[in-house]
Write a structure and sequence with these properties.
The protein starts with a helix and ends with a helix. The strands form two sheets. Strands 2-4-5-7-6 form a five-stranded mixed beta sheet. A two-stranded antiparallel sheet has the order 1-3. With 496 residues, it is α+β, with helices and mostly antiparallel strands.
Length: 496
Amino acid sequence: MMHKVRKLSIRVKVILVFIITTLIILLINLFMYVNVNRMLNRLEEIYMSNISLNELSDTLVDVQASMTAYLNTRTSDALEDYYRNEQDYSQLIFRLNGGIYGNDLKLMEKNIKNMSEEYLELTGQTVDAKRGGNVEKVKARYEKATELQGYLKTYIYSLNNEQFRVNSSSYQVLSTSLKYLEWINVITLILVGVCNIVLIVMLTSTITRPLQRLAGTADQVAKGNMEVELLPVIYEDEVGVVSKAFNAMVVSIKEYIDRVRKSMETENALKEKELMMETHLKDAQIKYLQAQINPHFLFNTLNAGAQLAMMEDAERTYRYVQKVADFFRYNVKKNNNTVTLREEIALVDTYIYILNVRFSGEIHFRKEVDETLLEVQVPSMILQPIVENSVSYGIRGIDWEGEIILSVYQREGTICISVKDNGIGISKDKIDKIMSSQLRAADLSRDSNGIGLDNVIGRLRLFLNEEDVISILSEGENKGTEVLIYIPVQGGEENV
């Protein structure tokens, strides 16, 4: 039996303890319920006899009263009351004992029943005589009925008192039994509670004691002591499985340490060779780095071209080369940094200048900027990709004069940055796809620097820790597009 218990899982043990304790409490409560109900039913039977005798006495008085009322008034209502009361009284005496018993109380019930039947016969004769107009017969029967009614009241009263005395005695016995039963219930519940506590302690000890040993041994192993004794496995539950696995792990670690110690000499022998190989690898890496083109080489080359143009008095060429150098320098140095909004707008100015040189000034660019808002911190490279999209997908190739307007203003605690063009516009379906990051590849033009709207939106959301950072508005085909960026003033001030 104990062997089977040791194989039980913790879950099964907990369920068994719960079921056993619940069944014990349920059986005790059922036993107490049955006994208490039995006693309560007995108490109800005790007092029902007194209630029945009181009802019998009251109905007897009603019969006499209704008969007298009829004799005095001779109305149909009085006669109806008499017959109703007589019927009720007949039903009550029908319940009384009519057999022969040695019990005095039962014998009194029998006498009352017989006298009641005789009384009802006299009252009926009295009423019949009244209805027949026989005055002498009415008087004789009424007097006998009244006399018999007095005897009946006395008998009922005596039986009621005797019955009450007997019932009081029985009530005392039952009351005492209920008190004893209550104490038995309390004591039993206490014993059940103690048994439950013992069972729970026994169950938890089979779980916590092995866990404590496991925790102590694991702590020793964590401190580097691998010479610990293996854990004894008594129970085959989850804790036992973990203990076996831990023992296997300790043995495996010991074997691994032995293997490592044996391989130390071999590793020491190979160490010099590895160091030599690392030295040669570092030399190769240095030569590889030296062969790479430094980004500054590009800037220096462009600057040299700008200086050469200046020396040759080619002012426009000098300015163009200088702007290109500034543009690439900003891209390389600022690509992962935060910058001021002023620097971002300056990059847009540079970008528009380069485009106008390339396309003979066909791009009309206008700014409406609140200078007091330009020191707010923003992620780098968020405006130029938007302006680039306006050029590539908005105003390039249109039949009317293209224009791009960059606006910066404050509205309701938010800095709004607007890039608006009067180009071909954009459909609502495409706007939805852009906002849901479904046009990542299509968002890049062939001349793009590699940073599309999806990238701008993602970096703004990360930077501001908000979802609602940008809106794309277009009224339809050939009605232009507006891209709005929202920078909270508080958030902006914190990032300044």
